[in-house]
Amino acid sequence: MQLSLPYSRGETAGVLDGEFLSRSTSGLGDTRVRLSYNIKGAPSMDRAGFQALRAAPQTIVGASLLVQAPTGDYDADKLINIGTNRWSIKPAIGVIWPIRETWLLEFEVGAWFFGDNDDFLDETRKQDPILSTEFHLIKRIRSGFWASLDANFYVGGRTSVSGNEQANLQRNSRLGATVVYPFKGRHAIRSSFSTGVVAESGGDFEMFTLSYIYAW
User: Fold this and answer.
1) What is the pLDDT of residue 113?
2) Which end of the chain is more exposed for a tag (fewer CB within 10 A), N or C?
3) DSSP-assigned states of every residue in 102-137
4) Hey, what's the torsion of the CAs at 40, 44, 46, 50, to 10 degrees?
5) Which domains does the chain have, with CATH numbers?
6) pLDDT at 177 over 70
7) How far apart are the first and last CA of the chain?
8) Which residue intervals of the chain are DSSP H helices?
9) What's the count of helices (H) and strands (E) in the chain, helices before strands?
10) How does residue 54 score in pLDDT terms, banded at 50, 70 and 90?
11) What is the pTM of this model?
12) How far apart are CA 131 and CA 16, in angstroms?
């Protein structure tokens, strides 16, 4: 199980109905809980079994369910918010395929399903499901230290506000890279960068993240 509670800070500016508007936002985002289950490969094992798996990687197939709760900061009279004011779920299935001992190909197929935001500027906002795929070419450098090239593609997500369909079908793709560096046993730093390649609706931005990881 994985639990995450993001914090966001930023400033947005643009023209809406001929008027230039800007807004600064900061606060906690929506809470996410992910449950995962291995269907094939990598069963529960001791240290020796894990080391044997690292020495001779095998194909692993798993499934997950991600649930996003509407706990983030949200102002009903604002267009841009950190929180989404709705429940969302994403079932997915993933595969890790060892190309060589230290090279792995990881890919996932999933779909987002969204609840309704019934307090969107005094209207109800609905959103179609989004089909998503992602790929990671991973290089294992040493225990806990790895880097990857990342790509994704997703389509869907058209919204409607009080029954009026919006022209915002998403058909987007991004490329990026990730590095995880361990230190002092159970601690690690994770950094990643991504940029938009195809952005039919939204998604045309660059993103850099830096996070701290502690493994139990």
Assistant:
1) 98
2) C
3) TEEEEEEEEEEEE--EEEETTEEEEE--EEEEEEEE
4) 30
5) 2-214 (2.40.160)
6) yes
7) 12
8) 47-55
9) 1, 16
10) confident
11) 0.77
12) 29
CB neighbour burial string for 114-135, b if at least 16 within 10 angstroms, e if fewer:
beebeebeeeebbbbebebebe
**What percentage of the chain's residues is helix, strand, coil (to nearest 5)?**
5, 65, 30
Top pLDDT among 46 and 82 is at 82
Rounded CA-CA distance 84/166 in Å is 17
- Token output for 209: 């993240």
Cα 173 from chain centroid? 13
The tokens for 193 are 């960068």
Taking the C-alpha atoms of residue 85 and residue 8, their distance in angstroms, rounded to an integer, is 16
In the block, tokens 């947005």 appear at 12
Question: In Å, how far are 13, 74, 191, 194, 206 from 77, measured between CA atoms?
Answer: 17, 9, 35, 31, 28
Question: Residue 47 gets which letter from DSSP?
Answer: H
User: What are 107-158's pLDDT values in tens digits?
Assistant: 999 999 999 999 999 999 999 999 999 999 999 998 889 999 999 999 999 9
Look up residue 73 and give its two tokens. Answer: 């900061």
